[in-house]
């Protein structure tokens, strides 16, 4: 599965675009949106356009599916996509706008 997220609020999943609107959820004043991660070791840093449920306010990211991340009890970062399932996030490259994810059932 190929997932690409852009700063403009677009996300491409296997060649299909979804689009968010910055003004609807992503806060214009990001002072309260501190960088977060599920753990301090080997866990991707979460920032705009994503947000970490339970650790950041929901206005710290885009309010559309694919931008809300969460942590498992084992401190793995999780991306849940409607109709596709839950995937663990291995890395996020904000510069190239790429997520590396894997299916925990295949690992």
UniProtKB/TrEMBL annotation:
It is an enzyme of class 2 (transferase). One of its GO terms (cellular component) is membrane. Its EC number is 2.3.2.27. The keyword Translocase does not apply. Its main location: membrane. Residues 33-103 form the Wall-associated receptor kinase galacturonan-binding domain. It is found in: Membrane. Keywords: Membrane, Metal-binding, Signal, Transferase, Transmembrane, Transmembrane helix, Ubl conjugation pathway, Zinc, Zinc-finger. Pathway: Protein modification; protein ubiquitination. InterPro entries: ATL20-22-like, WAK_GUB. It catalyses: S-ubiquitinyl-[E2 ubiquitin-conjugating enzyme]-L-cysteine + [acceptor protein]-L-lysine = [E2 ubiquitin-conjugating enzyme]-L-cysteine + N(6)-ubiquitinyl-[acceptor protein]-L-lysine. It comes from the Eukaryota. Residues 1-29 are annotated as: Disordered. Pfam families: GUB_WAK_bind (PF13947). Residues 1-10 have a biased composition (Polar residues). GO terms for molecular function: polysaccharide binding; ubiquitin protein ligase activity; zinc ion binding. It is a single-pass membrane protein. Belongs to the RING-type zinc finger family. ATL subfamily. This is RING-type E3 ubiquitin transferase. It comes from Tetracentron sinense. The lineage of its organism: Eukaryota, Viridiplantae, Streptophyta, Embryophyta, Tracheophyta.
């Amino acid at each position: 599965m190929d997932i690409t997220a852009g700063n403009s609020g677009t996300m491409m999943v296997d060649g299909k675009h979804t689009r968010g609107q910055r003004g609807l959820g992503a806060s214009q004043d990001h002072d309260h949106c501190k960088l977060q991660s599920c753990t301090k070791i080997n866990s991707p840093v979460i920032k705009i356009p994503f947000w970490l449920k339970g650790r950041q306010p929901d206005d710290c990211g885009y309010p559309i599916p694919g931008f809300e991340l969460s942590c498992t009890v084992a401190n793995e970062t999780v991306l849940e996509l409607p109709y596709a399932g839950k995937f663990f996030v291995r890395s996020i490259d904000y510069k190239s706008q790429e997520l590396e994810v894997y299916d925990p059932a295949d690992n």
